[in-house]
Inverse folding.
């Protein structure tokens, strides 16, 4: 699976390169800023998970790849904005200076804005062009419309992971941070609820979107997709908990799982959530094997 993820990541990287083509020579520096934020780093876990989900259900690789790249574009936008002084105030990202340290804060804001818009534009273009490519006349009309609906639904679930139910809402709560009433005045239960809500929105929602979009694109049933949503959310939480545990010391003073539960209990909860996630996709039978392999691979990345 590690080799497959590397192959998927390389394909996603090539797709992302196409997102950075300047409209004119005057826009070359803008394209350079996009390339700095989009390319040359990251495991492409979220895009890889979308591709694994689509393949598990018999989806079309090239189609899923384009949506996986859009999802990674949204993830890149969130990282560029997250590093800003007004947010997490981080000077480095993946061993390099953060985007705003190279191009300035204003340009980092614009680059992130462009990444989010480009992701939506690319998915809308795929959806709109589907009917033209397949044809909307005669016997092909029904299939073409169903294909357009699948693509539109996949784009919708991905974009939802960035807005009021996802990254934006989670970052709002994270910015309030330890000054939030739930943290300052609440007891253990209130703090645990705040932590879970933040991480579900900032991290788990994108994992949910990856699996759900992959299933939708492959034409999975509503029941199958429901199982995928649960798997994605739980594995996203597993990833975040283990990442928090790994970063103990670097995240002192922040709202993290070890800060609320302690290290050992955090590990136990991550293991329990992983077991629940894997059990939830067992009804898919042999088709769930690829997702199980991906879950096993994720243990080495956090």
């Amino acid at each position: 699976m590690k080799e497959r993820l590397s192959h998927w990541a390389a394909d996603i990287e090539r797709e992302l390169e196409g997102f950075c083509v300047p409209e004119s020579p005057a826009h070359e520096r803008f394209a350079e800023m996009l390339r700095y934020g989009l390319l040359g780093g990251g495991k492409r876990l979220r895009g890889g998970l979308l591709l694994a989900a689509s393949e598990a259900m018999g989806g079309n690789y090239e189609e899923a790849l384009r949506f996986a790249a859009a999802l990674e574009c949204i993830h890149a936008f969130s990282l560029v904005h997250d590093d800003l002084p007004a947010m997490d105030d981080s000077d480095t990202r993946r061993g390099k200076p953060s985007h705003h340290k190279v191009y300035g804060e204003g340009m980092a804001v614009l680059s992130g804005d462009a990444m989010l818009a480009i992701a939506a534009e690319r998915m809308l273009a795929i959806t709109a062009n589907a009917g033209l490519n397949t044809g909307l006349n005669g016997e092909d009309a029904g299939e073409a419309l169903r294909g357009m609906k699948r693509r539109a639904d996949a784009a919708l679930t991905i974009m939802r992971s960035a807005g009021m139910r996802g990254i934006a809402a989670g970052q709002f709560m994270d910015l309030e941070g330890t000054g939030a009433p739930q943290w300052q005045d609440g007891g253990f239960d209130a703090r645990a609820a705040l932590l879970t809500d933040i991480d579900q929105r900032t991290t788990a929602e994108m994992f949910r979107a990856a699996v759900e979009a992959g299933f939708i694109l492959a034409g999975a049933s509503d029941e199958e997709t429901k199982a995928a949503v649960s798997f994605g959310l739980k594995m996203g939480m597993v990833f975040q908990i283990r990442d928090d545990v790994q970063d103990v010391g670097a995240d002192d003073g922040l709202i993290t799982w070890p800060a609320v539960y302690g290290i050992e209990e955090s590990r136990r909860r991550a293991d329990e959530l992983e077991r629940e996630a894997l059990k939830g996709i067992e009804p898919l039978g042999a088709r769930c094997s690829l997702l199980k392999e991906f879950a096993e691979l994720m243990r080495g990345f956090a």
User: Anything to note?
Assistant: The two ends are 16 Å apart (CA to CA). The chain has one domain: 2-301.
